[in-house]
Structure formats: C-alpha cells, structure tokens
Amino acid sequence: MPRGLTLRALVPNAITSAALCSGLTGIRFAIGGDFHSAVLAVLLAGFLDGIDGRVARLMKAQSRFGAELDSLSDAIAFGVGPALILYLWSLSAVPRFGWFAALALAVACALRLARFNASIDLPGQPHKSAGFMTGVPAPVGAGLAFLPLYLWFASGIEWMRAPFVVGPWALLIAFLMISNLPTLGWGALRPRRAIRLEVIALAGMLTVALMTEPWFTLVGVCALYLALMPAGLWRYRRIMRQRAGAGQSKPEPQPAP
C-alpha cells in the first residue's frame, strides 16, 4: 500500500474539501443573517460535489479515502448546513417543532449516505443497474429543501417564511431522501439523437436564466424535478417489466443426455 495519497488524488479531494468548506460557510452567513449568501454557498458546494467524482475518474484517482471524505462532506454541506440555515431563517420561531424538523433533515441526509456507503459494493442493485438512484440524492435534497427560501427571495411573500410551511416541507424532503423511490440519475437521462442540439441550447438558456433571474429559475428547476419523479417511477417500473418479460421468454436449458 502506498503511503498517503497519490499526487493525482490531491485534486479531486481538494475539490471535495472546498465543497465542505463552502457548506460550512453557508452556516456562517446564516448566523449573520445573510441568507442569500448562505443559500449560494450551499449551491456552490453542490456544484463542487458534482464535479469532484468526475475529476477523479478522469484523472484515474478514485480512492476509498476520497469516497469516505465525499460522504462526510455531503453529510455536513447538504444535511447539517441546510438544516441550520432553515432553522435560523424560519424554524427558530417555533423552537421545539422547528428543531425537530431541522434534525429530521440532517439525520435523513446522514442515513441516506450511510445506506449508499453500505451498498456501494453490493452487486445486483436494481435501481443502479437500471440507471436510477434510490431516493433523492443529498445535493438535490438540499436544493429542494431551500424551495421556500427561493420563493421568499423571488416574491417577498412573507408567509413562505412561516414555520408551518417550512417545517412540513423539510420533513417531506427528509422522507424523500431516505425513501426507496427510484429517482432519475445521470445514467437514465439520455436524450435522443434528434433533440441533442435542442438540449444544448436549453442548457445555455438555463445558464442565462440563472444569471438574470436566479431565484425564479431555481423554483422552476425544483418544480421540474418534482414533476419528473412520477415519470421516473413509471419508467423504472416499465424497465423492470421488460426485464422480467425477457427473462421469462428465455428457453429453459435442457439437461444433457
């Protein structure tokens, strides 16, 4: 076994460390009352978390250390961070129920990551083999948990900050993170060749929308993801039925004479 990390492994693990620091800095902004910067810090952590694994694969620098660091970073940046930000922004108005909702979000994120680590080496995972994920991923869960914040930033409607709105929403996202629902992953998103130019154009327009109207755009992205969840479940069940039908149609092997 080599001593310490290889030089190639420093880059993806440094990106993971940056994501962790970004999520923690979001808590610092929330303590100071700067909730815009707090949300942006967590979103930056999500972006960094999305590229660290790809950088590791491109550089052939995957390691068990990197996988463990990534999970610990996700638990803090997308579990503890959003939970404390929501508590400081809204849920502290009802400390008992609010803290319970915040804890549920943080604990659900940790449980999801623990389940992922426990099953990462297990063969024959039905959701993964079909290109789906089990439950809502931690970064996506953090982004969805901030939906009341996006609406509050965009519209200024004060009741969006009410604990009776934010608390149940946080509990719902916590449930979705630890649920067994098959959710769309990158492996399941394969646009047909005929519309790939349109997909590229849509990505460019989405980037401009995030730059000009970030909060309304994030509301739209969250709404689209939630709307696609039933479609993802239907698609997963269809793939499973097709596989079951293909398995039943195979002729049984005949015994040797």
Automatic annotation (TrEMBL):
<dbReference type="InterPro" id="IPR048254">
    <property type="entry name" value="CDP_ALCOHOL_P_TRANSF_CS"/>
</dbReference>
<keyword id="KW-0443">Lipid metabolism</keyword>
<feature type="transmembrane region" description="Helical">
    <location>
        <begin position="97"/>
        <end position="118"/>
    </location>
</feature>
<keyword id="KW-1133">Transmembrane helix</keyword>
<dbReference type="InterPro" id="IPR043130">
    <property type="entry name" value="CDP-OH_PTrfase_TM_dom"/>
</dbReference>
<dbReference type="Pfam" id="PF08009">
    <property type="entry name" value="CDP-OH_P_tran_2"/>
</dbReference>
<dbReference type="GO" id="GO:0008654">
    <property type="term" value="P:phospholipid biosynthetic process"/>
</dbReference>
<dbReference type="Pfam" id="PF01066">
    <property type="entry name" value="CDP-OH_P_transf"/>
</dbReference>
<comment type="similarity">
    <text>Belongs to the CDP-alcohol phosphatidyltransferase class-I family.</text>
</comment>
<keyword id="KW-0812">Transmembrane</keyword>
<dbReference type="InterPro" id="IPR000462">
    <property type="entry name" value="CDP-OH_P_trans"/>
</dbReference>
<feature type="transmembrane region" description="Helical">
    <location>
        <begin position="159"/>
        <end position="181"/>
    </location>
</feature>
<dbReference type="GO" id="GO:0016020">
    <property type="term" value="C:membrane"/>
</dbReference>
<feature type="domain" description="CDP-alcohol phosphatidyltransferase C-terminal">
    <location>
        <begin position="196"/>
        <end position="230"/>
    </location>
</feature>
<protein>
    <submittedName>
        <fullName>CDP-diacylglycerol O-phosphatidyltransferase</fullName>
    </submittedName>
</protein>
<feature type="transmembrane region" description="Helical">
    <location>
        <begin position="130"/>
        <end position="153"/>
    </location>
</feature>
<keyword id="KW-0444">Lipid biosynthesis</keyword>
<dbReference type="GO" id="GO:0016780">
    <property type="term" value="F:phosphotransferase activity, for other substituted phosphate groups"/>
</dbReference>
<keyword id="KW-0808">Transferase</keyword>
<dbReference type="InterPro" id="IPR050324">
    <property type="entry name" value="CDP-alcohol_PTase-I"/>
</dbReference>
<feature type="transmembrane region" description="Helical">
    <location>
        <begin position="72"/>
        <end position="91"/>
    </location>
</feature>
<keyword id="KW-0594">Phospholipid biosynthesis</keyword>
<dbReference type="InterPro" id="IPR012616">
    <property type="entry name" value="CDP-OH_P_trans_C"/>
</dbReference>
<keyword id="KW-1208">Phospholipid metabolism</keyword>
<feature type="transmembrane region" description="Helical">
    <location>
        <begin position="216"/>
        <end position="234"/>
    </location>
</feature>
<keyword id="KW-0472">Membrane</keyword>
